[in-house]
Amino acid sequence: MAILSFLSRASRTYKGYPKLLVLCTLSLSSGGLVAYSESQPDTRAPHVDPNEKEPKKKRVVVLGTGWAGTSLLKDLDASLYDIQVVSPRNYFAFTPLLPSVTCGTVEARSIVEPIRNIVKKRKGEVKIWEAECVKIDAANNKILCRSNIENNLVGNREFFLEYDYLVIGVGAQVNTFNTPGVKENCHFLKEVEDAQKIRRSVIDCFETAILPGLSEEERRTNLHFIIVGGGPTGVEFAAELHDFLEEDLVKLYPAVKDLVRITVIQSGDHILNTFDERISSFAETKFRRDGIEVQTGCRVLSVSDKDITMKVKSKEEVCTVPHGLVVWSTGIATRPVVRDFMEQVGQAKRRVLETNEWLRVKGCENVYAIGDCATIDQRKVMEDILSIFEAADKDNSGTLTVEEFKDVVDDILIRYPQVDHYLKSQRHLRDVTDLLKDPQGNDWQEVNVEQFKLALSHVDSQMKSLPATAQVAAQQGAYLSRCLNHIIQCEENPEGPRRFRGSGRHRFRPFQYKHFGQFAPLGGEQAAAELPGDWVSIGHSTQWLWYSVYASKQVSWRTRILVVSDWTRRFIFGRDSSRI
Amino acid sequence: MAILSFLSRASRTYKGYPKLLVLCTLSLSSGGLVAYSESQPDTRAPHVDPNEKEPKKKRVVVLGTGWAGTSLLKDLDASLYDIQVVSPRNYFAFTPLLPSVTCGTVEARSIVEPIRNIVKKRKGEVKIWEAECVKIDAANNKILCRSNIENNLVGNREFFLEYDYLVIGVGAQVNTFNTPGVKENCHFLKEVEDAQKIRRSVIDCFETAILPGLSEEERRTNLHFIIVGGGPTGVEFAAELHDFLEEDLVKLYPAVKDLVRITVIQSGDHILNTFDERISSFAETKFRRDGIEVQTGCRVLSVSDKDITMKVKSKEEVCTVPHGLVVWSTGIATRPVVRDFMEQVGQAKRRVLETNEWLRVKGCENVYAIGDCATIDQRKVMEDILSIFEAADKDNSGTLTVEEFKDVVDDILIRYPQVDHYLKSQRHLRDVTDLLKDPQGNDWQEVNVEQFKLALSHVDSQMKSLPATAQVAAQQGAYLSRCLNHIIQCEENPEGPRRFRGSGRHRFRPFQYKHFGQFAPLGGEQAAAELPGDWVSIGHSTQWLWYSVYASKQVSWRTRILVVSDWTRRFIFGRDSSRI
Ligand SMILES: Cc1cc2nc3c(=O)[nH]c(=O)nc-3n(C[C@H](O)[C@H](O)[C@H](O)COP(=O)(O)OP(=O)(O)OC[C@H]3O[C@@H](n4cnc5c(N)ncnc54)[C@H](O)[C@@H]3O)c2cc1C
Ligand SMILES: Cc1cc2nc3c(=O)[nH]c(=O)nc-3n(C[C@H](O)[C@H](O)[C@H](O)COP(=O)(O)OP(=O)(O)OC[C@H]3O[C@@H](n4cnc5c(N)ncnc54)[C@H](O)[C@@H]3O)c2cc1C
Prior knowledge:
The structure is a homodimer.
Chain A: H1 5-14, H2 19-38, E1 58-63, H3 67-75, E2 81-87, E3 91-93, H4 98-101, E4 112-114, H5 115-119, E5 126-130, E6 132-137, E7 142-146, E8 158-162, E9 165-168, E10 173-174, H6 182-185, E11 187-188, H7 192-209, H8 216-222, E12 224-228, H9 232-252, E13 261-265, H10 277-290, E14 292-295, E15 298-303, E16 307-312, E17 317-322, E18 325-328, E19 332-333, H11 336-344, E20 353-355, E21 367-369, E22 374-376, H12 385-392, E23 399-401, H13 402-415, H14 417-425, E24 446-448, H15 449-455, H16 470-485, H17 487-492, E25 518-523, E26 526-531, E27 535-539, H18 540-552, H19 557-573
Parallel strand pairs in A: 1-2, 1-9, 2-5, 9-21, 11-18, 12-13, 12-18, 13-14, 20-22
Antiparallel strand pairs in A: 3-4, 6-7, 7-8, 10-19, 15-16, 16-17, 23-24, 25-26, 26-27
The complex binds flavin-adenine dinucleotide (2 copies).
One flavin-adenine dinucleotide binds at residues 1-3, 63-69, 86-89, 95-96, 98-99, 132-133, 169-171, 189-190, 233, 335, 337, 371-373, 468-471, 473 of chain B.
Enzyme class (chains A, B): oxidoreductase
Protein name (chains A, B): NADH:ubiquinone reductase (non-electrogenic)
Domain EF-hand (chains A, B): 380-415
């Protein structure tokens, strides 16, 4: 899966060009921007006390240096704000390449960039604290942080930070669905360290399986790799592992090569079920041909250090299978610090932290939440239908003419993006005013409230919450930085849609997500991609597209060059199997 | 410090050529050999049972995949022997670049090569077990091994291996001299993992020191880096750390850059005291200029998690200094498994395992020991003086003519290398027969036993044990593989010197070490080198020589390219400070 933000633009520009050209041009062009700004370092010495008074600047505290936080920090104007960043890791990690790190196709160092490097070009100072936020005190506008470095260094590891604006971008944690034994016995694939641990453990499995004195059964058990979760991450890891095995390990461990087994366990009916059906069935066929077992319709009941117990849904049958290594990759859950915060702001009952369409946390004036840690609660048209009607009915006639409707249409489309999605999903509607037709397809000259309700009664059906992807997180970060940078200008000259349930306009347009498609690398130099406009592309050429997009999306020239040279090294020398 | 094995040859060949040419040619030429042989992989499936009977082949078990073991395995003929390798790590590590890994100048992966890759080109199968030898049972020709992988995999982790020949190449462990607190509170720099841990910890020190709420004193403490041991490793680490700081960290942590302190503690009077005096005083001057403190004549009494206590020898004064990180790099000690073995073979009282000049363990017929784990007990000429005299005195006249002496001179020079060293150290002796001169410098026509003893009485003064270096270990491994490969031919046609205390000839020439010099990188793109022929070279050009030699000595083309591209990356982008 991948962010294809460049892709739609690229596919227009480069249609028909040879792949390599696309690769080079994409990487060079997008990287150029980054490199240019990187070449202006700022080495002024900042002071260290974060709570000192700088009366002119408002304090923005950003939690997290993942996709959301980093994208925000890249553009947030440090001459306007006193910016402080709190994150337990001092770098940004390019998560879409994490599965490649598990088998050494790409090195861990090649996909990380110190956050200080990313922000050091800023116009003002950005203070960065490698610590975890352990408590948000929303009532007092402050947070408690704790350094999580485990060593013997001196000094108090806890400190408070005060904020005027808080941006929560702490991402999510792995969801074990409280399945017994998962935390203790499974690998996860969320952080860089996880990927490194998996890499070592895969080698451990081989080194142990080959030792003298084991029965063949024991060797088989140690070489049984189980992946729980048939989403893009699990599938990509399975494919990587299979490639690693076929291309490298068979040569080094020939004695046990026939004993390896890879199983993907999926609770749904198909793997990659968020993808187009053609992709998911291609993936299943390819996996079957490669000898990767796919067990769909299976729910894991528990995992012990030696085996995994699951229930095959259709047969109501429970079976237990021994394993060598289990990677758990099934979904995400809210972090404790966010849970606690949700209770403070009256969201205790919700599953995920909710924001409004401007990414502001509901129930809190000055806290924003972006990325995987939050979800947008999109307002329904039907909730506001009366206000919309009143606002549109300028002459207060109790009926709406098409002209009057046209006057508010743009604001409606901006304020309620689901209307646009609905129009696109209904082939017979060419224009939003087509909504205002009677059941026979004739234009209504005027509509009353009830008819208006009826006309718009289906538009909310196209609302769906955004996926938890880097693509969304990065767009939200960029959106929010723009808002914060223009907060004063937009106070005076609001640029948002009109307020239907109040007067005037919103300061900003609400956040709007642009989906650029997604990738699923399937191993053996083949990938599948779902591109905008329902376009599906599968095969070797798609893998090249994948290479070019992923190279272009790197956060710095350093990582871009490292990633490309890792790929090249892998082609020439294979993957390294040293256990470090 | 470095193995300059190519250097003396290279300096002859390339004298006067530009440095870069030397770099390229050296890397390419030496690498070429490796790459050629690498290109012939062998993928026949081996069987796994190691104790199966293969009546024709003798079983050689090799312990360790360090410099000694790997150098042995590179050439040991797998068509002659059933070869099994036991080592707790499945790769070879290029230790001379370990100090560069501590600061990210070179990546850990770039200096390791899987041992299976190194041996997979062999004519026969080489079995490799990732395990530790925990017990050598010399009486029964078998060893007990234990896998040290900590995980949940199934199967018995312990197994026995039987051998006909055992080669011990397990290296040495860190010597703490039983100083209290060292094991718990110090970093070591011996394994790849150690270097990675140091890298993370250095970043931890900075991230902690910069946190809000610390006093300046606390920041200073966290940024006090202490290196115990002023040998080549300690000095190189100090230089690397200083470079990392100056070139990278000052830009990223400007707020605390002036609080950093690096101290090298050395018990002797000078750092680098195994080097030429000019080098050690250059190093001290350079360090002083760079602000690295050098405390000589200091003995560490104890280390706690917060501070280090030491005694300044000259003043009999004890002082305690707070620290952020201590790297302990003072010398080596025998591993427990070797200690236990020494007791079995009657070497309980010795400090180090002793072998004879053919690297065979004393007190054991079929066990060899190479590298850091052993030392050669060179036989003294004076111990054999009577036998030599008798052997040389062909006509049993009781006196030796110069002619008779000349007849045995070659054998003496081979059997007792100290004689040659002695001759070279005495300017007035041009030839070994010059020894047979009377005190006035006139040739003796004939010498009797007492005169003969007198003539050779000083030659043993030039005996010294070999240093524990990669250079020695690699040469020993290569020597031993040649011996084992030719054991049958040489049984029939011995190629060694005559046996003075027996009849016939030795099968092989004894091991003879060739010293090619050593390097000391001092940071700031400067290095010092001690080259053969008392030649000392210091400065930037020496650093280039260092680059070229280290690139050329890499064990594979993969690591060679990786190391060179790491250096290049560092020049362009600096070192990565992400804490992973
Ligand atoms: C293996 C893998 C592959 C993926 N592939 C793709 C892909 O191909 N395409 C795609 O679009 N998406 C992909 N995703 C999803 C994508 O990574 C996430 O959607 C994205 O990272 C979300 O960004 P975020 O900033 O919200 O959270 P994250 O990127 O997870 O960042 C969270 C940040 O918050 C920090 N943090 C955590 N706790 C605290 C705390 N208490 N206080 C302060 N800071 C804290 C973390 O250290 C981290 O810096 C993948 C994810 C994974 C795990
Ligand atoms: C940081 C550093 C820098 C150095 N720089 C230089 C330099 O520039 N030039 C130079 O000449 N020398 C250098 N040296 C010294 C050099 O590394 C050693 O002399 C050399 O490694 C010795 O080789 P060895 O094979 O005897 O031991 P090692 O290389 O230490 O290898 C020992 C092997 O035995 C294995 N082993 C350990 N215990 C067991 C067991 N119980 N059973 C089986 N196997 C076991 C280990 O895993 C390892 O594979 C350096 C050393 C260090 C630590």
